[in-house]
Amino acid sequence: MSVQEFPILDEISDQRRIAAAIDAATERLRSLQHRDGHWCGELEGDTILESEYLLLLFYLGRAAEDRFRKGAEYVRRQQLPDGGWSIYAAGPTDLSASVKAYFVLKLAGDSPDAPHMVRSRSRPNRLLLSRTNFSAARRSQSVDWRGQGARMGAEDDRDVVRFLYLFTFLPKGRVEELAEAVRTAPEKREAQKVLAFEVTRIVHGEEVAGEMARAAEIVYHSEIKDLSDQTLAAVFASVPSTEVSRADLEGGIDLVDLLCRAKLAASKGEARRLIKNGGVYVNNVRVDGEIKVGPNHRASESFLVLRSGKKNYHLIRVVDRQG
Fold first, then answer.
1. Closest Cα partner for 299 from 280, 318, 286?
2. Which CATH architecture best describes the domain 146-221?
3. Cα gap 192→196, rounded to integer Å
4. Which single residue of 35, 179, 241, 322 has CA 20 to 30 Å from 99?
5. Which H helix or E strand runs over 108?
């Protein structure tokens, strides 16, 4: 006679094993209890919570606290042999966990040239430098190239140093040099230019970053012309825009009307005063009178750029429809 011939015996056996497991677990928990009745143990899991907590401490200016140092030590210990970080015990490398852990260690002062940091960027773990995989991270940040400021949501230029630590692979020494440049020569905007270039390079590659940097120099320091739609749209990604039909542009649009449509002027009277005072530009070229804007004013196949004053840019999009 076997257990298989009598299912009830098999069920009893399972119940006994379950009961034994419960008793063993209960006894283990009792053995860990402190005399006053409480338990205390390590919360084991992925490093995302620890990384985000350390990021918060850094934002709050509390990176000098001992808990920040201990947290960074914990994150280092959790690194996998391939250089990445996982989201559960014995799991594979996870992109979001790895990105957060890597940048937290940078904030803790770990040099990008340190062996464990190099390992996180090298084969077989290429997540942190992979353009395709990087875009799959749970959080992404767009770059605003206006004035090569790379504002990225910054309230003022002081934030650029914090963003250099958070969003680039630059060594700590280089970031400190740029921080000094912000303090001593803010008008040169060196740190902002480096931030814009580095973030674009990480996300889109060296070639695109170089093209964007060159385009930004042209756009903000000379007449805007002979650029591709893609480049112009990227440079002015966060600038307000207004659509005009290609047919209307070919017929000519009064500049006064266009300024009102773009909300660069509240009324036609204000638009005329802006033009008279030399405060209106088309593609960075000052307009001397009330002209008609036509196809020859395009900076690219489908765009032209209006500006009032020094910084009020507006992108005019030429579309193949009425309106």
1. 318
2. Orthogonal Bundle (1.10)
3. 6
4. 179
5. none
| Residues 128-163 pLDDT 10s | 444 334 444 444 344 554 444 444 434 456 678 888
Using the Cα atoms of residue 11, residue 17, residue 23 and residue 28 in order, give the sign of their dihedral.
negative
* Structure token digits, residue 49: 């919570």
The DSSP bridge partners found for residue 262 are none
Side-chain half-sphere CA neighbours of 55 within 13 A: 17
Fold of the 235-319 domain? 3.10.290
- Residue listed under structure tokens 């770059």: 143
Rounded Cα gap, residues 205 and 308, in angstroms: 33
pLDDT of 132 reads 38
What are the structural domain ranges in the chain?
48-134, 146-221, 235-319
Q: Half-sphere exposure of 34 toward its Cβ, with a 13 Å CA cutoff?
A: 5
User: Could you tell me if 224 and 283 are in contact, meaning their C-beta atoms sit under 8 angstroms apart?
Assistant: yes
The Cα–Cα gap between 319 and 323 comes to 9
Instruction: Return the amino acid letter for 6.
Output: F
